[in-house]
Write a structure and sequence with these properties.
Blueprint (H helix, E strand, L loop, with lengths): L23 H12 L4 H5 L5 E4 L16 E13 L6 E8 L2 E7 L3 H7 L5 E6 L2 E3 L2 E5 L2 E4 L12 E4 L4 H5 L4 H15 L9 H6 L5 H9 L4 H33 L10 H10 L6 H13 L7 E6 L5 H14 L3 E5 L3 H15 L6 E4 L5 H12 L5 E4 L13 E7 L6 H8 L7 E6 L5 H7 L4 E5 L10 E6 L3 H13 L3 E6 L6 H18 L7 E4 L5 H12 L5 E5 L11 E6 L7 H8 L10 E6 L5 H12 L3 H12 L24 H17 L9 H11 L9
Parallel strand pairs: 4-7, 10-15, 10-16, 11-13, 11-14, 12-13, 14-15, 17-22, 18-20, 18-21, 19-20, 21-22
Antiparallel strand pairs: 1-9, 2-3, 2-5, 3-4, 5-8, 6-7
Helix pairs in contact: 7-8, 8-22, 9-11, 10-11, 20-21
Bound molecules: adenosine-5'-diphosphate and magnesium ion.
Magnesium ion (MG) binds next to helix 11.
């Protein structure tokens, strides 16, 4: 089946960048150090981050404070370095035939001073702003105007490349980089190989790869530029999807899965006699999806997404009962001790005594108890084991593990998941649950090799949490409200930010906050639990416990309150300095309340000065409770790289595509991949030759063993 891989025409792209005309060893060294450009290929993929529309020069008379960055042609008529110390700045008077503006620099004064010669015609680029009633541009890009500048293509769209001070000193400013890229393109453009079959190119109206690389660097017009971008983004996203979905297929072929053929006594009894509520239709749908998955004899790898409070635990429990009915054991793993304990307690209370054997295993389980647990596991007397990382340890051996449930997915690494798999000759079915809603496009990429189930509905009768935004000046009102709620028998969380970079100051705020609250809510009438990172685990859980047992009415905490902590009687969540939290964090924190029958509230406290992003975050929280909508906005605000749980994922190392902006292309690419793999899963068809080649050359073989 192996195709001769042959010598790649593209081999030339591996050439070290120093051999390129116009580079040489000295510049190559800086390119490596400053921009991580080592080879021709790296340089080819050093895409412009912006293009200047050379067709449009603004006149100074047309400028106002509302415009985006614009391009202006004019002369420096005077320049001066003024001010002292921090305020020291270079101010130049810039003039065209319609008026004059000020250009201001606070940095690299000497350097700029050398460049901007009086009298010469300059092209400047920057965002006009109004300062002291006069239009000025701070740190504009300036460039000596050269009407006949050497250039590829025509001059209408000029690429702008990121560069550094050091590179600029060696004539590799944006223009300089453009020059060496022109040399590179000249030399390699005809060696660039097509990666996508003709049929896909035609179907999706994609330009050739050669044409795309040319036009991304030297576009003739906006239309060609957009097409080039679309082509290269499609490439990136398409091959990620191809890899992910191939992994999935290989896994399906390679691993048999336990067959949960029938619904038996435990499942049925639980469903008809013990389940204290009606399942929501979303829960029913997910149960059905999992059931179907576990009957096929293929190992299940499923991600279960559901907002906080959507009822994932009971779904997980029912699946473990299904495993038990079919002669298997199950385990449920949580990221922290408190969470594991809670799962254990809620499962115990749902199933009651003498129904199934459930035990808890965590880091603090005694040696003696461990020994007993291990034995019960190995001889099959234990049905469900709930626990933390402790479950992964080699000493933990199951007789017949059929299902692994992992709560809060993002805290466990791939390696840890794999360890659980190996605990059985037939790998167990895996259900990972997460309460962090992930926008669809992100999920497709991060978990593109998993099946995804979504619980998108809260249990009936749940009152939506009311969220308000208050300023520090309204604190008295807040205290009053707290008193009312406590009188009704409710409990209250108050959360303070504690961030590493500002830890000392944050701790001071926390202390001051605790003082103020203790003054307004003094004992013996009121009692307060305090939980923060400086406490030992034991102190922490004893403080938590007092709150759970209603011995305290208020819990003051830093963000250490665990995801998933469940105290249904707590109905108010107050978040101090809410402007400092990210959207997903705010949403997670708010999810701590609204779990009981009472109306719940979330109060976001902030200062008066808010950045525009902070305002969007707080407004979003006030407007909606929908975790997926919030996640979508979070993605738009912060970009995919900063979304919780994505940090270590190499999948998101995209050069051009942006999962927040390019959802349409991603969906198109994924659909295409699915269709191709449905028709030709092994990619043996002649029409898929290029895709096969991609695997052979870049991934190192098509049936690689490594699975993730
Ligand atoms: P999460 O998805 O955040 O893990 P849980 O599983 O902890 O949510 O469920 C939250 C609460 O809702 C629990 O007290 C649970 O018993 C309850 N619950 C779950 N499903 C339903 C339902 N269909 N109807 C009513 N209450 C439910
Ligand atoms: Mg949960």
């Amino acid at each position: 089946m192996d195709l001769p891989s042959g010598k790649l025409k593209e081999q030339i792209l591996k050439t070290p960048v120093e051999y390129l005309k116009g580079v040489g060893t000295q510049r190559a060294d800086i390119l490596k150090k400053d921009l991580a450009i080592f080879t021709y290929q790296d340089l080819l993929e050093h895409y412009p981050f912006r293009y200047i529309d050379r067709t449009r020069f603004y006149k100074i008379r047309e400028l106002n404070g509302e415009l985006p960055a614009v391009q202006i042609l004019g002369r420096i008529v005077s320049k001066d370095i003024i001010g002292e110390k921090q305020a020291k700045r270079l101010v130049a008077n810039f003039k065209d035939e319609t008026g004059s503006i000020e250009l201001v620099w606070f940095q690299s004064l000497k350097w700029v001073d050398k460049i901007i010669q009086q009298g010469a015609v300059f092209m400047i680029f920057g965002k006009p702003a109004i300062f002291n009633g006069r239009i000025s541009i701070t740190h504009p890009e300036v460039e000596l105007y050269q009407p006949k500048a050497e250039n590829k293509g025509n001059l209408s769209l000029q690429p702008v490349y990121s560069s550094t001070e050091k590179l600029k000193q060696f004539n590799l400013d944006s223009r300089g980089i453009q020059r060496i890229l022109a040399n590179l393109i000249d030399q390699v453009i005809r060696q660039i190989e097509e990666t996508l079959p003709d049929q896909i190119l035609a179907e999706h109206r994609l330009m050739s790869r050669q044409k795309a690389f040319f036009n991304i660097h030297f576009p003739d017009n906006t239309e060609l530029l957009r097409s080039a971008e679309r082509r290269l983004k499609f490439d990136e996203l398409f091959f990620i999807q191809l890899k992910l979905l191939r992994t999935k297929i290989i896994r399906t072929h390679k691993f048999k899965g336990a067959v949960f053929a029938s619904v038996g006594e435990k499942f049925n009894t639980f469903f008809s006699e013990k389940l204290p509520f009606e399942l929501t239709s979303a829960q029913k749908r997910v149960v059905r999806e999992i059931r179907q998955d576990t009957q096929r004899g293929i190992q299940m790898n499923r991600l279960l997404q559901g907002d906080v409070g959507s009822g994932k635990t009971v779904v997980a429990l029912m699946m473990t009962l299904l495993a038990i009915d079919n002669g298997f054991q199950a385990c449920i793993m949580a990221p922290t001790e408190i969470l594991a304990q809670q799962h254990y307690i809620s499962i115990k209370s749902l199933v009651g005594d003498d129904f199934v054997e459930v035990e808890l295993l965590t880091g603090s389980t005694t040696k003696k108890l461990r020994k007993i647990l291990h034995d019960k596991l190995e001889n099959g007397r234990l049905n469900i084991l709930v626990g933390t990382h402790a479950l992964i340890e080699d000493a933990v051996k199951f007789q017949n593990l059929g299902l692994v449930v992992i709560d809060e997915q993002h805290r466990f690494g791939v390696e840890q998941r794999a360890k659980l798999w190996r605990k059985n000759t037939i790998p167990p079915h895996v259900l990972v649950m997460t309460a962090t809603p992930i926008p669809r496009t992100l999920a497709m990429t991060l978990y593109g090799d998993l099946d995804i189930s979504v619980i998108d509905e809260l249990p009936a009768g749940r009152k939506p949490i009311k969220t308000v935004h208050m300023y520090h000046s309204q604190r008295l009102r807040m205290f009053g409200f707290m008193k009312e709620e406590i009188e009704k028998g409710r409990q209250i969380y108050i959360v303070y930010p504690l961030i590493k970079e500002s830890e000392k100051l944050d701790l001071l705020y926390l202390e001051a906050g605790i003082d103020a609250i203790s003054n307004v809510f003094p004992p013996p009438l009121y009692n307060i639990s305090i939980v923060h990172g400086k406490l030992t685990p034991k102190e922490k859980s004893s403080e938590m416990e007092r709150f759970v047992k209603k011995q305290t009415q208020i819990m003051v905490a830093t963000t250490v309150i665990e995801v998933g902590v469940n105290v249904p009687n707590a109905s108010v969540m107050i978040i101090e300095n809410a402007e400092r939290f990210g959207l997903s964090q705010l949403h997670q924190l708010r999810g701590r309340v609204g779990r009981g029958v009472d109306q719940s509230y979330c109060i976001l406290m902030s200062g008066n000065k808010l950045s525009s992003d902070a305002r969007i975050r707080l407004d979003t929280m006030v407007r909606t409770n929908d975790g997926f909508e919030i996640a979508e906005i979070d993605l738009q605000l912060r970009g995919p790289g900063n979304i919780e749980g994505t940090q270590q994922s190499g999948v998101l190392d995209l050069k051009l595509a942006d999962l927040a902006q390019d959802q349409q292309i991603l969906i198109e690419a994924r659909k295409t991949v699915i269709k191709i793999l449905e028709d030709d899963p092994e990619l043996t068809d002649e029409s898929n030759r290029l895709l096969r080649q991609y695997f052979e050359r870049r991934v190192g073989g098509i049936s690689w063993d490594k699975i993730s």
